[in-house]
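Minutes, project check-in
Item: structure for the 411-residue chain
Input as provided by the requester:
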Amino acid sequence: MDDGQSALPRLLTAAETAAPVGAVDVVAEHLRRRFEATRVSFLIVDLTGKTVVRLSTAGALEGGREAERIPMFGSVYEQVICTQRLYQEASGQGQRVIVPVTNRGDAIGLLELLLPAAAGEDVLEAVGEAAHVLAYIVIANGRFTDLYTWGRRSRPPTLAAEIQYQLLPPSLSCEAAQFTLCGSLEPSEDLSGDTFDYTLDRDTLHVSVTDPMGHDIDAALAATVLVAALRGARRTGAGLADQAHRADQALADHGHGHATGQLLRIDLTTGRAQLVNAGHPWPLRVREGTAEEITCLVDQPFGLSESAPHSYRVQDIDLRPGDRLLMLTDGMLERHGGTVDLPALLEHTRDLHPREVALTLTSAVREAAGGRLEDDATVMCLDWHGPQETERHVSSGADTRQASAERTRPW
């Protein structure tokens, strides 16, 4: 095996020599040769978080087939995604090795290799490093091709769904020294325009969850105006109250009805958390194993200022290191969602990564609805580690101290 310090630049060069749509194929072939593997595959996690799609394989005999979609529940693929740790097993064909392809806690997919013999620690370490580099290659080339976007979708989206998906942040999960978060959206049959968003400044985390009125294309267009107004205000350095005001004004000015929403800002250096609630359900907080609602002041929904000008109130909320915060839309609470005991489920999943928690909660609501939601079910789960944390503890793109041991609930 080549020395890792010289091999990794060659890995990046291999990706750069190929077209964006072929970059992962070239990388897979490069890794097959480098590790003398009989087969190397890249599998991407789809948007549901319940399926992986085999997008690229080097060394396989078959060709020209449709991408293979594999349910994750109960599989070794799920185990690797949840634990963010390498898996290996001996088989009649050689040593099977699966490693996570992850960037800052965002579980992009998996790298699977079939090695000719039991791999030593040096080989396994090099495979892990290659998988980490592969995460950056997928992210970079995703700017130039729809291949990875296609792989992440279980079915062709409607026009409204296409708009809604484009409004979500590029990465649904994020790990930082002070926090870990993940959002999940289970769309209804007639999309209701739910969105969530987050971004990091140098010393501030911004989070939002929004829910426009209406369904299908009307809701998608309202969500577009709403998210664009919030992002535009945020990027100019506007405070929470001004962000809320601009969102309110944008919906009113463009005749897109109204929307509820919740805007959160956390100072990463002090831990101070502030919230604006525009007619939205109260968030939930898990502290020392107990889940409870955070009762807060509720202002009018966005989009009603044309008839009644309104000032949005910025309020402090109590957030301490070790807390888990859940922001959600009313689709998690109404109709079939009302049959799911969210506080109890939050307490039951306390030891899981926010990625697994978000998926478990939204999937529980879809399951209660028999697979057909009448309203979007959306959550944003945030673990607050505290301002005293200044560095991440990472291994190949993930903090394994925060990872889940296993998934606790079938889909």
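Outcome recorded: The first strand starts at residue 39 and ends at 45.
No further action items on this chain.
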